[in-house]
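FAQ: What does the model actually see?

It sees only this:
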Amino acid sequence: MHKNEEFRKKVEEMFKMKILDLYFPHQKYLDFLISSLSLTEANSYNNAELAFITKFNSTDVKDLSQFIHWCLNQLLWVNSILESEKYCSKSDDIEEFFDYPEPSVDGDHWILSKVIDRGLYFYHMEDITASKVIINSANITGIAESLSKAKNKSNLKKENQIILHNDDSSTLFINKDIEERCINVLKTIKHPVLDEQGAFINSHGMIAAIVFWYYKCKVLSFISKDSSTTRDNISKELMELIPNLSIESSNLSQNTKAKKYKEDIENKLNEIADKLKETH
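And it is asked to produce this:
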């Protein structure tokens, strides 16, 4: 057993707790953790506090600090597997190796499918097109830091989060006003991907910008909870929203490369989020 001292020290400092020798999986709480991480990019887990809050807002859990506690508990279970340095590449053997019973009922579950030297691999049980979530010794400390940042917002109640009633005039966003603001971002960034009329310019690399923009909007809770979560339907809704856009479900990878656009899009969408917090 090789202890991850950096992770352990950070957790004990941030959460004022002592790490136990043994943790167990709990599918409901594991879904909270992994589905939160699925809302952000793999290289941004250390900035995933908004993703955790977004997931919290979609649950019936009333206390954010309790939600964070459950996520942390499952992260500690993940760490116990990483520290064991045991590997298992066959999903059928996962239960025997790590005492992890795969959910017997289909549903909105994220399941542990394999443990290799690159980390623990989680896949969505029903949506095979969903991006996998990988947790390893390199990114687990960043995840704990994100949970700590989210916990620091535990004094905020759900009604104080950015949750607005859905407007029927927008099928994708929480309301038409948010939709127009977010669309305007794609027109006004340094390298625009939409023309003044809102039509897709369709230049090389711009599909990746649209994908990054969509997932960032989702992390910030701009996307309606009533909208579809399957990639096929998401691509259809994006094409209905943006004239001249042709996008396939296979393009909707949360690990998309859009280096030319990412920083500008992220900054402008964050500005929208900040203004909404000031007015609500």
